[in-house]
Specification:
The chain is α/β, with parallel strands linked by helices. 37% of the residues lie in helices and 19% in strands. It is built from 11 helices and 15 strands. It has helices spanning 11-20, 36-42, 81-91, 132-151, 171-176, 194-207, 224-234, 245-251, 254-260, 269-275, 284-293, and strands at residues 2-7, 24-30, 45-48, 66-69, 103-109, 120-121, 154-160, 162-164, 180-181, 188-189, 191-193, 212-215, 222-223, 242-243, 265-266. α1 (11-20) packs across α6 (194-207), α3 packs parallel to α4 and α7 (224-234) packs parallel to α11 (284-293).
Length: 294
């Protein structure tokens, strides 16, 4: 049976493992031993290792036929040494090409485009990352594409917008009444359900083209305030107050503003056409409708 290594065993990985078990013997890299039992219950084989400690990764070289890389970069700096350490460890195999994975899928972010003023964005649009968080992702993408070309590995990059699920909705913000932006000044935002991201990741491992980028966005076409209002209505909560963008600069945190200041609409035709994905939740409203019925 083919072997697959998951790097970054968070929520999306846990959703993907049952899908991957059908075609792979799944290994999951974790640095916390307490996570091992839960991974075994899902059918994965846990491997202890830390992307911040290159020596701890010595055992993964030549292990897997495919790699699903979901681990985020560090929280500071302009580079992603974790991806560098991972690629170095995967390359340490006898016979070089013989033991390298044939496929690698990397989970990146749509933040690499920066603020596009609400314009439609395809996978061929130039990158304009402005936040250090997004710049680290650009650096990781560059590392992966260069490594994949040198070694003949099929690498696919999934640029991911805001991930949501029934247990991943902004209820805390709604309950706190954190203000949003008035509609005339509001930003477009993009979304994907965590279950759909899991199935897209599996599809990319099977059908992704070499060094190809895919947007993993659903069909929602919402401004940020509209998204909050829809979630509020589903849970019977009041709408958050709306303020001008100038007022927001005075009262909201810099980290929150960094998200609210970027506006774009992602196209998803390439994902649907090449990966042949049918979304379980085509829009945010589809999930919220099930919550209302419940």
């Amino acid at each position: 049976m083919r072997r697959l290594l998951i790097v970054g065993s968070g929520d999306v990985a846990l959703r993907a493992i049952p899908l991957l078990n059908k075609g792979y013997r799944v290994f999951a890299l974790v640095r916390d031993p307490s996570r091992c039992a839960g991974l075994r219950e899902l059918g994965a084989i846990p491997l202890l290792g830390d992307l911040d400690d290159r020596a701890s990764l010595a055992h993964i070289g030549g292990l897997a036929d495919a790699v699903l890389h979901l681990a985020p970069p560090p929280g500071a700096g302009m580079h992603d040494p974790r991806t560098k350490n991972l690629l170095s460890a995967l390359s340490r195999v006898r016979g070089r090409r013989k033991g390298l994975p044939k496929r690698l899928v990397y989970i990146s972010t749509s933040g690499v485009y920066g603020n596009c003023g609400g314009a439609w964005v395809s996978e061929t649009c130039p990158l304009n990352a402005t936040s250090p968080r997004a710049q680290r992702r650009v650096e990781a993408e560059t590392q992966i594409r260069s490594w994949a070309r040198r070694n003949g590995v099929h690498a696919s990059i999934l640029r991911v917008p805001g991930i949501y699920a029934a247990d991943r909705l902004p209820l805390g913000r709604l309950q706190q009444g954190t203000p949003g932006i008035i509609d005339s000044e509001d930003s477009y935002t993009n979304h994907i359900h965590a279950d759909d991201l899991a199935q897209i990741s599996v599809a990319a491992l099977q059908r992704g083209k070499p060094c190809r980028v895919y947007h993993t966005s659903d069909d929602s076409r919402l401004k940020m305030g509209e998204y909050f209002d829809q979630v509020a209505d589903a849970f019977g909560l009041p709408h958050v107050p709306r303020i001008s963008r100038a007022e927001a600069q005075q009262v909201l945190s810099p980290s929150l503003l960094s998200f609210m200041n970027e506006s774009r609409r992602l196209t998803n035709q390439r994902m649907k056409r090449e990966l042949r994905v049918k979304l379980a939740y085509p829009t945010v409203a589809d999930l919220l409708a099930t919550i209302k019925r419940a």
